[in-house]
Amino acid sequence: MLWAGSRGRHRPPGVVCAGLALALCGLASLAGCGTVESLNPFSGGSNGSGGSAATCPTVAILHPLAQTAVFVPGATPEPISVAFYGILDDVSSHCERDGDAIRATLDVVVIGERGPAARGGTGVDLQYFVAVTGPNQAILSKRSLPVHVAIPADAKRAGVTDHIEETIPLTDGKVGNLNIVLGFQQSPQVVDFYHHFRGR
Predict the structure, then answer these.
(1) 140 lies in a domain?
(2) In terms of pTM, does the model score above 0.85?
């Protein structure tokens, strides 16, 4: 199972959105809706202390997929119909080398924000993906992760930090050939919305 390590959440500090190198822009197709299947599953992570500090693969949030929208059921996808926005605000990483694998720890900051059509509610359920790519941006592994952001009744927005731990095999022993990319799973309705509107 991908990203099977522990996942903890807490309210985040102020953060800055992660950027993405131009070479990865073509990965926007990763946002496809529907069931997300493992193409080359990660091995299960280990929390032991036998590893040594290592350079992480490049880790970035895909800019076109850094936001998403949740609409009122049955409504036309336009700004006035947005109940909630989701924002992938930041990701930090730490890695250790463990033989022919890298143990990666990611802390992903996910923000939920009320939209014009919000009518009460205690929060929003969102879904984002984490994928590992190799040379020529070939997708080696991909996993979809659900996250709930609780928003107090008197607040417009709130956030959580999703903590992920996992082991990534190094097939050729080179960390530099790998990238870890993140983005929201976007339905055709959301893709169309951001094609016609700037969103939040």
Answers:
(1) yes
(2) no
